[in-house]
Design a protein that fits this description.
The protein has eight helices and four strands, in the order ααβααβααβαβα. The protein is α+β, with helices and mostly antiparallel strands and 206 residues long.
Length: 206
Amino acid sequence: MTELLPLDPDQLLTTTRSVRKRLDLDRPVELEVVREALEVALQAPSGSNSQTWHWIVLTDPEVKQKVADLYAKSFATYSANQPRRDDTARRVASSAQYLADTMGQVPVLVIGAIYSGGELPKGNQAGLWGSLLPGAWSLSLALRARGLGSAWTTLHLAYEKEIAEILGIPSTVHQGVLLPVAYTKGTDFKPAGRKPLDDILHINGW
């Protein structure tokens, strides 16, 4: 069992950040620690306790690079259309660019996917993704507790079919999130700035 960081629940929830530039690309990540974190993630809720999620863990350098190349291609398109409004936006853009440039060097890539039976449902898809994304966030929290970091990414979905072909993912399973996973350079993450609660809180109606 991996030793856990001394974080209480509120600290864990408020200091689990999207980590990009502070991912340690040189330190190997043991598959066992990823398995430990996934065992925690499997306790997350899913609709009707269906547990139709799948977790594709990539450690092979050649396979990771193929996925990383498609991610970088998608990021280039995305980045070209994003305004650089302020210092915060520019810092995030720099961090995101770094991840796109180094994705193939990250020790482990984890793709969270879910069985859909075929085509995605029309209309509101909250029921489907609500059975995957809580597990992916639990995985992020479990990794943080073990001194590892990740960054919630979905840009690879622009090339979902191509990635599915590379990885042999069947057409009945759809990808929902890609998490690059590595030990972090330091563990001293802090809560981020957020909008005031009263600006977004609605009680008994809008």
